[in-house]
Amino acid sequence: AEAQILVGRKTRVQQYTAKLLHGPEHTVTEIPGSYLGPIIRLQKGQKVRINLHNRLDEDTITHWHGLHVPAEVDGHPMYAIGSGQTFVYEFEVANRACMAIYHPHPHEATAKQVYQGLAGAIIVNDEIEAALGLPTGEFEIPIVIQDRLFDGQNQLIYAPNMHSNMFGFYGNRILVNGHPELQLDVATRAYRLRFLNGSTARIYKLAWDDGTPMTVLGVDGGLLEQPEHKPYVMLVPGERLDVWADFSNRTLGSELVMRSLPFSGVLPHMGMGMMGHHGFGLPVGSDYAIFTARITKKVSDSPKLPIQLAKISRYGIDETHNPNKAVPITISEGHMAMLLNGRPYAYKDIQDRERIPLNTIQLMEISHEQGSGHGMMGMGGMGEGGGMGMGRMGMGGMQHGGMGGGMGMGGMMAMAHPIHLHGQSFQIVSRSIDSSRESDYATVNQGFINSGLKDTVLVMPGETVRIIKPFQDFKGLFMFHCHNLEHEDMGMMREFLVE
Ligand code: C2O
Ligand code: CU
Ligand code: CU
Q1: pLDDT tens track for 137-157
Q2: Which residue, 52, 195, 427, 491, is most buried by CB atoms nearer than 10 A?
Q3: ipTM for the complex shown
Q4: What's the pTM value of the predicted model, to 2 decimals?
């Protein structure tokens, strides 16, 4: 019934059309009964034209997250169109086979529009991947995970406030492909599950409830070289994950639940308790179900897991432009602000940009500054009632209770940030964690996939991640930002000017 309420409501996505004029008939597939945008299937090398008709009563623009496209069609907020206008996208699909995302990117309104339904999956195919014979058709299932907050009448709530701007807006229900408590009926054979975290802020630690390892085929930018077996996999907003799920040896009628397992350290310790402030929270890092697979059909044959999936050549660092010196991307958490390179997003300020020479391959270092005792994330003046459990956070003299206005709070309150870079995929070179953060880190780090091609990476408090990223083919402005979309809208975004 709840699913029908979701579907039956006139959501904004129903006013939104992304229509491909070129391409095969099956290019656009609706997800039945879902508020999500249709799945757009593209072929590597294909030329596409997409018309975005804005039937909202506000500005919007669509970004093709994960696709390597010219800056003019990358969905930069300066290209946002007003109500009633049309934006025509034309580009050639340069990516190898992968899952990408389309979602809005208007200035300071990305989170709200994504939350209200404007997002969908793109699946890029190519001949190399097709030759592997991985499960397709009904055996290749998108798993788009989003958390949403519903009131007592099952109406969607998006009510950001200073608290949710700082920590992210979190829902009380988990939706998969637009459905709460999704049940997938599966046969006794192998499936390919294409995960996408389309939540604005929530981080998941995905695992099968019976301890079966997760068999990972690929990440953001497509297949890994070989499948990897993991006890669990972290999935942060904006990330994708390609999973081989083999139900061959399961008994008819049995069920397997995909859960998010407990973890810590991605929010300030107080944050866990704070998530209850709507009265019916689903705390980040707690244990809850994502969906259930139910074995309803017996079949006799199933594809086999390939031993080798793809060849990925390591990027070499460009000697002439970037000798041993990493381009810094620093995360800092200021007073009511989340910053990259110490500054907020400088919309339309043409002077204030990170510059990168065209056709170079850059070593970059994303680091998360630790609070050094000067009142990181001071929260004076934050007048939000609703008893917030203070947990283990050091707060001179303050015990459990509501946080009234005007309270100054020192101490470290660092949190994790999913950092996303537009343009070409990058490779992760190394990760290191500050020793003071090791115990929290141990609750998540077995779930990082550091091989393969990425466009979004979780950076934990006290962590430094080194990546190599090419800036080829296209000049212009390419954004990089936190994919906690509340943070993005708060200005945790910068741009590379590729020139
Ligand atoms: Cu998925 Cu700039 O975003
Ligand atoms: Cu993107
Ligand atoms: Cu962030």
Answers
A1: 999 999 999 999 999 898 999
A2: 195
A3: 0.99
A4: 0.88
